[in-house]
Amino acid sequence: MATTLILGATGNLGGLTAERLYGAAPKDLRVASSRERGASRLRDRFPQAETVLCDWNDEDSVVAAMHGVSRVFVVTPDMVTDESVVTSNVVNAAKKVGSIELLVRLLGMPPGYTIEQADPAYVAARCGAGLHVVAKPLLDASGLPVAYVNAPAWIMFNLASFVATEVRPRRRIAMPASTDCPRMWVSEGDVAEVAARILLGDPTDHAGKEYVLTSPDRHDYAGLAAIFTEVLGETVTYADDDSALQAAMGPAFDQLMTYLSHETGSYAGVQHLDTMTELLGRPQETLHDYVTTHKELFS
User: Fold this and answer.
1) DSSP 10-54
2) Within a domain: residue 102?
3) 203 falls within a domain
4) Which of 20, 156, 204, 271 is deepest in the core (most CB within 10 A)?
5) How many domains are there within the chain?
6) In sequence order, which ranges of the chain are alpha helices (DSSP H)?
């Protein structure tokens, strides 16, 4: 069987994708972390899989992690990743090992968006599309068998980070109005399932393709509050207030706000496609579904 390496396995989407691969073939999974503490958590979570230490800022470390692997899934974190280094190392390592049949890369950017279209401050913030406009051209030019899982939407786990702290005690969604716009939302579970299906499939069916994952509905903050009101059975309102976000983000607040100030416009033109439903073979999870399933986070 083919061995799959997850780079970014301690993160949300990387970990959920690893769970699905582990359920299918635990001994064909290799998960990586750059730190021993993360590796220890991965060993506990995936005891039958192989866990390795990998610093993706070091090309030799990536080569070692890829040795004997045929498929790779790469998920890089926002704010801290230098894609010019990390993606270059991934590309060079994949070429050196020579065994990679499919490299799947997670993106979150409007299809066709390029670094030439992006404000330099957006790119410097190293979030979302500002991050991925650096990575994608490097992968496109690599000659490697690459497939993209591109979700130009908010992932629903952001509700726990940006919303839950104010919905629980005060029954309000507190976010700065300057960041409000009608957004698409996709669930992390659906994105992970799509990635796993691609990684478990025939590489020749997926190499060279970009799977754009969207949702048919968009929700602004008032619409989000209405969903919470319905699910919780109590009135939830929207407040133009950045204090909770500042507290949550700390010194990274300005960096996030730079990203959000550009994201509100750059994602507005993304059109909905049925790709998610087609790949899953079922309806995708809606925001209402997600809030209902995770109601305890907000109660």
Assistant:
1) TSHHHHHHHHHHHHH-GGGEEEEESSHHHHHHHHHH-TTSEEEE-
2) yes
3) yes
4) 156
5) 1
6) 12-24, 36-45, 59-66, 83-97, 120-124, 128-140, 158-162, 164-170, 188-200, 203-206, 221-232, 243-249, 253-266, 275-280, 287-293
What is the crossing angle of helices 128-140 and 83-97, to 10°? 30
> 145 lies in which domain range?
4-155+186-216+269-281
CATH number of the structural domain spanning residue 151: 3.40.50.720
Residue listed under structure tokens 């949702």: 215
- 78: amino acid identity, one letter: D
| pTM for this entry | 0.96
76 occurs within a structural domain? yes
Of the candidates 208, 213, 211, the residue with the CA atom closest to the CA atom of residue 101: 208
**How many other CB atoms sit within 10 Å of the CB of residue 237?**
15
One-letter amino acid for residue 239 of the chain: A
Among candidate residues 113, 100, 84, 87, the one with its CA nearest the CA of residue 8: 87
Residue 70 lies in a domain: yes
